[in-house]
Specification:
Layout lengths: L2 H46 L12 H35 L3 H11 L5 H14 L1 H10 L4
Helix pairs in contact: 1-2, 1-4, 2-3, 3-4
Length: 143
């Protein structure tokens, strides 16, 4: 068996593994969302408590938390988008369709240091190979 003949099987295995790891990344994003929600509840409880020690100088805790809610909202939306994007990318990798979408998600995953970076780099390398591009061309199913 030549290396050229073994490449499609190796590429298929790697794409299946990448799909699984994209699903895991989506699960980690959901866990991060749960942590963010717990942090929100903790901060809301602490900063809304009237017995909470307010420093003589500095911002009012209620005003600080009102501004911090925007942080929670933006981070929550990013985590939801990351989870949805990784789930879709995992499904697309399994079916070998929408290569560009998976490529974009891989680039965005590189922002999530260190696990997302590793997943993103491996996905970019795999999707950039000519043999994988041929698999995508052969594996695309009409809708």
């Amino acid at each position: 068996m030549t290396s050229a003949a073994a490449a499609p099987g190796t590429d298929l295995r790697q794409l299946r593994l990448l799909a699984i790891f994209h699903f895991i990344a989506a699960g980690l994003a959901v866990l991060g969302l749960l942590f963010l929600f717990g942090h929100y509840l903790l901060m809301q409880t602490l900063l809304s408590d009237p017995s909470f020690a307010r420093p003589q100088q500095g911002p009012d805790p209620a005003r600080f938390f009102a501004l911090f809610r925007w942080f929670y909202l933006v981070m929550g939306l990013l985590m939801v988008a990351g989870a949805v994007g990784n789930v879709l990318s995992g499904l697309y990798l399994r079916r070998r369709v929408h290569r560009t979408f998976s490529f974009v998600i891989a680039v965005l995953n590189c922002l999530y240091i260190p696990v997302g970076t590793i997943l993103g780099v491996f996905t970019i390398v795999a999707l950039s190979r000519e043999s994988v591009q041929r698999l995508y061309e052969a594996g695309e199913q009409p809708r």
